Request: fold
Amino acid sequence: MKNKLISAQEAAEKIKSGSSLMYGGFIGVGTPDAIVDEIVKRAPKELTLIGNDTGKPDKGVSKLIAAGLVKKVIASHIGTNPQTGELMGKGELEVELVPQGSLAEKIRAGGFGLGGVLTPTGLGTDVAAGKQIINVDGKDYILEKALKGDVAIISGSIVDKAGNVYYKGTTRNFCPLVAAAADVVIVYAEKLVEVGEIPPENVMTPGIFVDFIVEGK
Reply:
């Protein structure tokens, strides 16, 4: 079995300038702060963030935005991190807002090899601007193209040494989706166990999706 264990510092080295970085969680819950902190230290530039939100001050990916490392954000809302809105208003940060369900489906499509999904959500609004409209059986849909990332960082409540992941409660949000849609996936293990200690029915992200594991302290 491949040894997937690396340090948080080594994890940060996987994120290069210009990379698209996916992340799991909701308002920072499920986003691995230990890895984010190391990315801030390494300071890759011109990152594109793809996730549900931009955390909140001093939590989650908000630290990357505060450090000036991000050029674009693709998220469903930014209200919990005022700095994102401020930078957007000044024209210093590009923000693409996507309805939450559509965002989840775009990432899922990327992870499962689909070109995109058809949805009526956003028809007649700014969400539809510049996007292809497809009529199916007399009803219009927006074609939302699939989203993929270069690297995904997620946090697992229990992770075994093969990379199988169990998420407790709401930490699961978006983690399984981005884990399937990124070229390189790094999980921060709050608790690391031996293979077989997680009951198969409790595995929420199979180890085949996970490239590297950072053991929690």
